[in-house]
Design a protein that fits this description.
This protein is α/β, with parallel strands linked by helices. The chain has two domains: 227 residues, Alpha-Beta Complex (Spore Coat Polysaccharide Biosynthesis Protein SpsA, Chain A), CATH 3.90.550; 90 residues, no CATH class. Helices cover 46% and strands 16% of the residues. Strands 1, 2, 3, 4, 5, 6, 7, 8, 9 and 10 form a ten-stranded mixed beta sheet that branches. Strand 2, helix 3 and strand 3 form a beta-alpha-beta unit.
Length: 352
C-alpha cells in the first residue's frame, strides 16, 4: 500500500539527489560527530545534510558544528529531551525531502552511499526501504567484520518475512520513504532497543525493500556507556527485547499473509545464544536477568562441542560461574587495553 501523499508522485520510482536528506543525530558525543557529518557531506553525489540534536548537555555543541561546517549543514536542537527513537521521529519532522537516511553521531557512511542508493532504486524501483551491507569497525574506525554474511550479488529484493528473525539493516547506510514512514506511525518513541527494526518490518511489508551488495555504512563498536545499545546489553535485557521484537514482527506480518506463531525454543535452535555476549556483559547483570540469560543459553541448540561443554558447565555450576568468567575476561581485557595504551604512549614519546 502506498501512502496518499506519494501515490500520484511521478518521481516516486526515479530517485534523484535533491530528493534525499541525511540527518545526523546527536546527544552529546562530540568526539565522533565531526567524522559522521564529514561522511555525509563528502558523498560522491552531494545531498542535503541536517544535524538533529536531542537537547543534549553540551551547550556549545551547536556552535562547534556551525563554526566547522557553516552553511553546508542545517542544525536543529530540540527544546526538550525526546529520547533515542523519538529523536529519530524529530528527523522525519525536520526532513523536507521525500527520502531520508538517519546517521547516528558515532557511525559514518561510505563515500558512495548516495550513489549506491540511487543505483539500487533503479534496479529495484518502488520499494519503501533501501539499504546496503554494514561494516563493523572499532572505536578508531578500523574494519572488524561485516555485520552479516556477504551478499555475493550486486543487489537483491528483501521480503518482509526475512525481517522476522533479525534486523537486517545496520543503522548507518539505509534510505527510507519519509511519507510511508509517517503513515506507518514512525519510530516507536517508547522503544528501548528495537524501534528501528520495527519500522523496517512495516516498510518492507507495505512496499518491499532492497539491499545493495556492498558496504554503505560503518557501525562503530565501542564501549562507551553513552551508547544506548551498550546500556541495554549491560542491563541484561538485550536478548529478551530481541525475542519480544520477534513477536511484534510476526504480529505485524500477519496482515501480509505470514502466518507463523512465535516459538522461543525453535528460535533458539536457529540462532543460538552467543556465549561471547555473556562473557562480555554478565558481570553487570542483576541476579534475575543473569538467570534469564543463562536459561536462554541452556535452551539453545549447540553449534559445536565447545558450546555444548560451556552449556554443561553452566548447568552444573550456575550463574555464578558465568559471572566469574565475565569478571576474569573483562579484567584481562582492561589490562591489555592499558598495556597497549602504555606502548602507544611510549612510542609517541620516543618519536616512533
Amino acid at each position: 500500500m502506498i501512502p496518499p501523499d506519494s501515490q500520484n508522485d511521478p518521481r516516486r520510482d526515479r530517485l534523484a539527489p535533491e530528493q534525499i536528506t541525511i540527518a545526523v543525530t546527536v546527544y552529546d558525543r562530540r568526539q565522533y560527530l565531526a567524522h559522521a557529518i564529514e561522511s555525509a557531506l563528502n558523498q560522491t553525489v552531494p545531498v542535503q545534510v541536517i544535524v538533529v540534536e536531542d537537547c543534549g548537555p553540551d551547550l556549545s555543541l551547536q556552535t562547534f558544528v556551525e563554526e566547522r561546517f557553516g552553511s553546508r549543514i542545517q542544525y536543529f536542537r530540540s527544546p526538550r529531551r525526546r529520547g533515542l527513537f523519538d529523536n529519530l521521529n524529530a528527523c522525519t519532522e525536520r526532513c523536507r525531502t521525500p527520502w531520508l537516511s538517519i546517521l547516528p553521531d558515532d557511525d559514518f557512511l561510505a563515500p558512495d552511499f548516495v550513489e549506491a542508493m540511487i543505483e539500487l532504486s533503479q534496479k529495484g524501483p518502488g520499494c519503501g526501504l533501501y539499504f546496503g551491507e554494514t561494516m563493523v569497525v572499532d572505536a578508531d574506525g578500523r574494519a572488524i567484520k561485516l555485520m552479516d554474511e556477504t551478499l555475493h550479488a550486486a543487489w537483491r529484493r528483501v521480503e518482509a518475512k526475512e525481517f522476522v528473525d533479525r534486523n537486517l539493516v545496520g543503522f548507518p547506510g539505509h534510505l527510507f520513504d519519509v511519507g510511508q514512514a509517517r503513515t506507518a506511525g514512525g519510530f516507536r518513541a517508547t522503544s528501548f532497543f528495537c524501534g528501528d527494526w520495527e519500522l523496517w518490518v512495516k516498510l518492507a511489508a507495505r512496499s518491499g525493500a532492497a539491499q545493495a551488495g556492498r558496504p554503505t555504512g560503518y557501525l562503530r563498536h565501542h564501549q562507551g556507556w553513552e551508547r544506548g545499545t551498550n546500556r541495554v546489553a549491560r542491563s541484561g535485557k538485550e536478548h529478551g527485547l530481541i525475542l519480544v521484537q520477534h513477536k511484534r514482527a510476526l504480529a505485524l506480518l500477519r496482515s501480509a499473509g505470514v502466518n507463523e506463531s512465535f516459538d522461543r525454543r525453535w528460535q533458539l535452535k536457529r540462532h543460538h545464544f552467543p556465549t561471547r555476549f555473556l562473557l562480555e556483559y554478565a558481570m553487570f547483570f542483576p541476579p534475575r536477568l543473569l538467570a534469564y540469560n543463562c536459561r536462554l543459553l541452556l535452551q539453545s541448540a549447540p553449534p559445536h562441542r565447545r558450546y555444548a561443554a560451556f552449556q554443561w558447565l553452566t548447568r552444573m555450576l550456575g550463574g555464578c560461574f558465568i559471572r566469574i568468567l565475565s569478571r576474569l575476561r573483562n579484567g584481562f581485557a582492561g589490562v591489555r587495553r592499558n598495556w597497549n595504551g602504555w606502548r602507544s604512549a611510549g612510542k609517541t614519546a620516543r618519536g616512533i
